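Subject: design request, 499 residues
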């Protein structure tokens, strides 16, 4: 091995192991931004067309996320990055390209070695199934194929789970988040001035639990689906303006991938179908449009199905059937949704742990008067999305920060949030000052509670009102804190008895 190659390997390994130097680089970059007037430009709203404030907002968000990643270096933690649900989302890649057995039979050869890396589900054929669908593995794949030779070159285990793989997957989240923010910015600029788009982007990225799932749990599906929702919104907007083959194809592919990652997210099609539908007449016109453009609708449908073909073939191989339900006794209870607990309860209440979204919901009402063409689509989507998400047996979605299942929908809800922001900025100084204060406090609260959760101060599934207020704005647990918790009974919940 040449001296230059050895030096490169040492430098790269140093990157994985030395966080102090990396943090100093971020601090220096931060000071350079301040010296260049970066943040002053961010606030120069009256010259938004020249300052491109929304691009600055995207940069600020990405710097914040990258600084979190570099500070915490979760890729060096054995129990982070590829863990919990991600074990299943990711399993398709190492099972296929490293262990050469998509049916997971190799697990039986050494259960102790593989037991903490795969969550196999039994099938009628005797083969093992991966619990989740393979959509997220599609998005992981380019970064996996970069990490695989890198791990070998750098002297790490080539097993799919060593630090280079985890680092690559962390960077995949940053890449897709960047893509999502870029497309969402395009959508918001179609409806709002640049500075309103910038504020909406900041609110969604730093004022919600998206921040946590873009950093500490970056490989969970939410940031990826947030990006896909953003792309889907952009494609929907373009299709309704141009109605051509290109946008029909990409819309079908995007919708198929969204559903392949999380099947219930197929609800996003409601927004596309009702785009610019504002009354009964426009609804009839939309139905006629789809009928007249049946060939384009057919292209969308074929593209959607094409994305699912590998999954259907996989299910046929491991179960003997083209459709296989791998979640066992886990199910939805549509006759018993936990709407109040899911929105306002202290265990995982959406508006308790992500109050910024209360402003977005208020913005939906305002859309009837200010952006009626999107009002019905977003309203119907939001109602059904809340209903479906909170009908799942584990309506609190396991150990998580806030209601994580809503995160991808923030791309859609950024539009009513933008309506709210624009309304507030159009009012007198008193309303502007009050709104700005609330806005900043909600972002600060979210960042603080994110840190609480990451330090295990805010409990992952057992919070109660007493527990919440005992740690409110505190970074230290009170005595006998565990006595204030109410941990859910998973087995009762699977029977539909709730918790």
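Subject: RE: design request

Done. Sequence follows.
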């Amino acid at each position: 091995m040449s001296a230059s190659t050895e030096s490169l390997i040492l430098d790269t390994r140093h990157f994985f192991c030395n966080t102090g130097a990396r943090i100093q680089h971020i601090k220096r970059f931060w000071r350079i931004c301040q010296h260049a007037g970066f943040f002053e430009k961010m606030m120069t709203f009256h010259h938004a067309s020249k300052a491109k404030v929304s691009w600055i907002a995207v940069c600020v968000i990405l710097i914040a996320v990258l600084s979190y990643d570099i500070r915490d270096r979760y890729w060096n933690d054995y129990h982070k990055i590829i863990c919990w649900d991600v074990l299943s989302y990711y399993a398709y890649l190492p099972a296929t390209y490293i262990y050469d057995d998509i049916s997971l039979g190799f697990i039986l050869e050494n259960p102790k070695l593989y037991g903490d890396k795969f969550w196999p589900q039994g099938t009628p054929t005797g083969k093992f199934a991966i619990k989740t669908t393979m959509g997220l593995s599609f998005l992981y794949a380019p970064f996996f194929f970069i990490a695989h030779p890198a791990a070998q070159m750098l002297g790490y285990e080539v097993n799919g789970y060593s630090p280079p793989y985890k680092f690559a997957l962390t960077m995949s989240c940053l890449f897709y988040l960047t893509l999502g923010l870029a497309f969402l910015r395009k959508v918001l600029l179609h409806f709002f001035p640049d500075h309103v788009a910038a504020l909406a982007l900041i609110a969604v990225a730093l004022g919600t639990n998206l921040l946590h799932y873009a950093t500490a749990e970056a490989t969970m599906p939410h940031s990826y689906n947030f990006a896909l929702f953003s792309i889907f919104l952009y494609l929907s907007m373009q299709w309704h303006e141009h109605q051509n083959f290109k946008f029909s194809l990409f819309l079908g592919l995007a919708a198929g991938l969204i559903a392949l990652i999380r099947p219930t997210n197929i609800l996003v099609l409601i927004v596309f179908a009702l785009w610019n539908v504002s009354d009964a007449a426009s609804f009839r016109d939309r139905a006629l449009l789809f009928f007249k453009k049946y060939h384009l609708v057919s292209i969308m449908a074929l593209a959607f199905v094409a994305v699912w073909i590998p999954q259907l073939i996989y299910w046929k191989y491991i179960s003997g059937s083209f459709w296989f339900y791998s979640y066992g006794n886990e199910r939805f209870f549509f006759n018993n949704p936990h709407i109040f607990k899911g929105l306002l309860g202290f265990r995982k209440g959406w508006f308790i742990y992500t109050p910024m979204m209360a402003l977005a919901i208020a913005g939906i009402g305002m859309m009837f008067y200010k952006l009626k063409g999107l009002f019905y689509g977003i309203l119907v989507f939001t109602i059904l999305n809340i209903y479906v998400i909170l009908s799942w047996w584990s309506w609190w979605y396991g150990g998580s920060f806030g209601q994580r299942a809503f995160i991808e929908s923030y791309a859609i809800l950024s539009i009513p949030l933008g309506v709210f922001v624009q309304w507030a900025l159009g009012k007198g100084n008193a309303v502007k000052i009050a709104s700005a204060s609330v806005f900043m406090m909600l972002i600060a609260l979210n960042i603080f509670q994110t840190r609480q959760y990451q330090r295990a101060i805010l409990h992952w599934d057992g919070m109660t009102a007493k527990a919440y207020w005992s740690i409110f704005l505190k970074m230290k647990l009170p005595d006998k804190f565990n006595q204030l918790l109410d941990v859910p009974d998973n087995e009762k919940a699977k029977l539909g008895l709730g918790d």
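The two ends are 60 Å apart (CA to CA).
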